[in-house]
């Protein structure tokens, strides 16, 4: 299936795919993801002043403040896709597609969906804190999906841990061989610059006021580096030699196999080391290489157009109350106006309203290539995991759901609004804001909402009231674990105490249990009942 797409020459399609880098930044909240995102865009010269994209509390302007909850909490709930060109050192232009992920653990499922759409990930670590729970969890997801990782140790301008100690922690706790490409000159808290381990040069950084503009950097050859940085240079050289002796030099093959990870040191707030990260992304991160379909066959990037929806997001703009489905292009060329096929229904799908989204600004998208993200406005039929294709059919695998750990019964506050209530619940379910579970016993008016984290309930409540005009009450249920069962198993389980069987909207039967121990007991006492976990990240 390597026929080229109509309208574009095969060599052009291949070249456009080759110059794209589609990745996400994953980190524990507060490691500096938003700051780094802004710094990357600033350095690629897509914006002129840091703070223009996320604008969290205290930053200058806001581009993604569409949801009041986000503003109130100072967290980023929704994912945004940013695209910008970056001119590399050699003068070629690559196209960066940076998919933003929500930092909060309660939205892990959302992050997981975004990670189905990337070719690599930047794992951001706070130099003072090292590996944190959310970093570890997201790393597991990347490993599970075989996503190559570039590690960035951030906030080196602040007192933190020893560089070698952090490297050791990465190796021992996650089993990924760290292969530093740069090494800090100056301890954490006294960040002077980095030793470029591939050229041997000293890259000296200079602070700018408030880190608002790109930091000037000077490349000093090794002979003059000692004079420029003194003993800090000597220490950096010594430690770099120790790394080489420990076989920690960059290796492209193990990086692509996900067994090693290049490491860079940065201060996103001061814009130090950000150029180096862009260069590494351009030079080493993998370009789009097609995708495996549901049967495990690869559809090459140069085949006819195909894409899958990895996220559906509504309510971005309170003035319009619209809904955007984000699709990642896997193969071929997209031209706005193309009529595609929606694999789930077999129906034609018109793409008149394709958009690109940069922060909150949107513009019409005319053409897209493998690795790009297309925002399809008002695409009511599309759900996360859906495939779109042109001419040669393909179906990509569904996006697995996380195992919910929080359950609550939703009821409309005003019974006369039952139509709005039904519509709202259905919409939230389709978007994957929460999972919606039902049973005959509870009835249509009292669906059970299931979530990975309680903040998903807040988003659901907020949207039911403000967007659908159907305020709800939520009554927590005492369940914490869910397993998939079949109809025969459901009959047995229904009769047990502190177990309930509910039906997900895709027809899957979920047995929910009060605790892990209760689940283990039930499984032991009922060996004939098959209980399957909802595996997504390998740790559910
Ligand atoms: P997140 O998206 O991962 O949650 O992190 P975010 O970028 O919001 O950064 C969290 C805090 O860490 C912010 O401080 C930010 O300024 C700071 N920060 C990020 N990168 C660096 C860095 O390289 N060095 C230092 N020293 N600080 C960094 P804040 O006080 O919460 O907000 P703000 O008022 O500074 O924006």
UniProtKB/TrEMBL annotation:
<dbReference type="InterPro" id="IPR041732">
    <property type="entry name" value="RF3_GTP-bd"/>
</dbReference>
<keyword id="KW-0963">Cytoplasm</keyword>
<keyword id="KW-0547">Nucleotide-binding</keyword>
<protein>
    <recommendedName>
        <fullName>Peptide chain release factor 3</fullName>
    </recommendedName>
</protein>
<dbReference type="InterPro" id="IPR005225">
    <property type="entry name" value="Small_GTP-bd"/>
</dbReference>
<dbReference type="InterPro" id="IPR038467">
    <property type="entry name" value="RF3_dom_3_sf"/>
</dbReference>
<dbReference type="InterPro" id="IPR004548">
    <property type="entry name" value="PrfC"/>
</dbReference>
<dbReference type="GO" id="GO:0006449">
    <property type="term" value="P:regulation of translational termination"/>
</dbReference>
<dbReference type="InterPro" id="IPR000795">
    <property type="entry name" value="T_Tr_GTP-bd_dom"/>
</dbReference>
<dbReference type="InterPro" id="IPR032090">
    <property type="entry name" value="RF3_C"/>
</dbReference>
<keyword id="KW-0342">GTP-binding</keyword>
<feature type="binding site">
    <location>
        <begin position="100"/>
        <end position="104"/>
    </location>
    <ligand>
        <name>GTP</name>
    </ligand>
</feature>
<comment type="similarity">
    <text>Belongs to the TRAFAC class translation factor GTPase superfamily. Classic translation factor GTPase family. PrfC subfamily.</text>
</comment>
<dbReference type="GO" id="GO:0005525">
    <property type="term" value="F:GTP binding"/>
</dbReference>
<dbReference type="GO" id="GO:0003924">
    <property type="term" value="F:GTPase activity"/>
</dbReference>
<dbReference type="InterPro" id="IPR035647">
    <property type="entry name" value="EFG_III/V"/>
</dbReference>
<feature type="domain" description="Tr-type G">
    <location>
        <begin position="18"/>
        <end position="289"/>
    </location>
</feature>
<keyword id="KW-0648">Protein biosynthesis</keyword>
<dbReference type="GO" id="GO:0016150">
    <property type="term" value="F:translation release factor activity, codon nonspecific"/>
</dbReference>
<dbReference type="InterPro" id="IPR027417">
    <property type="entry name" value="P-loop_NTPase"/>
</dbReference>
<dbReference type="GO" id="GO:0016149">
    <property type="term" value="F:translation release factor activity, codon specific"/>
</dbReference>
<comment type="function">
    <text>Increases the formation of ribosomal termination complexes and stimulates activities of RF-1 and RF-2. It binds guanine nucleotides and has strong preference for UGA stop codons. It may interact directly with the ribosome. The stimulation of RF-1 and RF-2 is significantly reduced by GTP and GDP, but not by GMP.</text>
</comment>
<dbReference type="Pfam" id="PF16658">
    <property type="entry name" value="RF3_C"/>
</dbReference>
<dbReference type="InterPro" id="IPR053905">
    <property type="entry name" value="EF-G-like_DII"/>
</dbReference>
<dbReference type="Pfam" id="PF00009">
    <property type="entry name" value="GTP_EFTU"/>
</dbReference>
<dbReference type="GO" id="GO:0005829">
    <property type="term" value="C:cytosol"/>
</dbReference>
<dbReference type="InterPro" id="IPR031157">
    <property type="entry name" value="G_TR_CS"/>
</dbReference>
<dbReference type="Pfam" id="PF22042">
    <property type="entry name" value="EF-G_D2"/>
</dbReference>
<dbReference type="InterPro" id="IPR009000">
    <property type="entry name" value="Transl_B-barrel_sf"/>
</dbReference>
